[in-house]
Amino acid sequence: MSKAAPLPDPVAIERFLEMMAAEAGAARNTIAAYRSDLDGASVLLAGRMTGADAAALEMLGTEWLTLARTTVARKAAALRRFYRFLVADGIREDDLSEALPRPVGARGLPKVLGHQDVDALFAEVARRVEDGEALALRLSAMLELLYGSGLRATELVSLPLHAVRTDQPYLILSGKGGAERLVPISDRARAAVAAWRVTLGGGQYLFPSRTGHISRVRLFQLVRDIAGAVGIAPDRISPHVLRHAFATHLLEGGADLRALQAMLGHVDIATTQIYTHVDGARLVALVNAKHPLVDANRRAP
C-alpha cells in the first residue's frame, strides 16, 4: 500500500519528469507527452493519482474504454513507469503498475448490463429509499442520472445544486473540450433529484462532500456497493458501464445513432458506433418485420 501521506500529484509528477530528463535522457517531446498523460490521469483520479489503489486504477481503465487501443497503451505505459518510479524513490511501498490495462488486439466491445440487471439495481435502491436508509435518496438520484441520461462520472459528481430543474426536461452540459450538449432528463430522474435536494441545506453542488463535491472514485465505490447487493459481479459494473447501458438500451429501443451521438457528447460518430453491438437475433427480426420487401411479398398474389 502507499505511504500514509503521499506527495501531492503535481510534486510527484515534477520529480518523475526531472528523473526522466536527467537520468533517462528523455527528449523534450517525450517529457511533454508524459506530462500530458499524467496530468490527465490525475484529473480523472481527483488529484489522488500518487496515492491511488488498484480499484481506482480499474476505474481509470474503464474511463479509457472509448479511446483508441494505441492511446490506452501509451497512457498505461506512462503511468506504469510513473508508479515504478514512486517505488524506486521511496514514495510508495507497492507497485501499482500491474493494475494498469495492457490492451492487446482490437478494441473490445464495452461492458454492458442487461435489462434485468438494471431492474434489479433500481429495485434495490427503491427498497432502501422506502426503508429510509441514510443517503438512499442520493444514490437514487445518481443512478437515475447515470442510466437515465448517460452522464459521464465527472459531469455527474460536479453538477451544481440547481442544475436539474423540475420544470425543465433537459440539462445543458459542457463536456470534453468545452463542447456544450443538450442532455434529456427523464421525469423519474427529475423526481429523484428533487427528493434528494430537499434534504440538503444549500451549497454549491448537488452531490456535496466536506471539501466540495464527491469524488469520481467515491461514486465508483457507491455503484459497486449497490451492484454487489443484487449479485452483479464487481468487474461488470462502474458509472461508465451505466453510461454504456444507457446508450445500448436506447439503440435497442430504436434510437437514432446521430441523436445518441449528440446526447453522449461524442465528437466522432465512430465512437458512438461501438454501442451498436445489439443482439443479432433482434436485428434479424427487425429486418424480417420492417424491410420493404416484406410488405411486397405480403401484397404478392
Question: In terms of topology, how is this protein built?
Answer:
Blueprint: H1 9-22, H2 28-44, H3 54-63, H4 69-88, H5 115-130, H6 136-149, H7 153-157, E1 170-174, E2 180-184, H8 187-197, E3 208-209, E4 212-213, H9 216-229, H10 239-252, H11 257-264, H12 269-272, H13 280-290, H14 292-299
Antiparallel strand pairs: 1-2, 3-4
Q: Mind explaining what this structure looks like?
A:
With 301 residues, this protein is mostly helical. It folds into two domains: 9-99, DNA polymerase, domain 1 (Orthogonal Bundle), CATH 1.10.150.130; 115-281, Intergrase catalytic core (hpI Integrase, Chain A), CATH 1.10.443. It has helices spanning 9-22, 28-44, 54-63, 69-88, 115-130, 136-149, 153-157, 187-197, 216-229, 239-252, 257-264, 269-272, 280-290, 292-299; strands at 170-174, 180-184, 208-209, 212-213. Strands 1-2 form a two-stranded antiparallel ribbon. It has a two-stranded antiparallel ribbon with strand order 3-4. A hairpin with a 2-residue loop joins strand 3 (208-209) and strand 4. Helix 2 (28-44) packs across helix 4 (69-88) and helix 5 runs antiparallel to helix 6 (136-149). The radius of gyration is 22 Å and the shape is globular. Mean pLDDT is 81; it is low at 1-5.
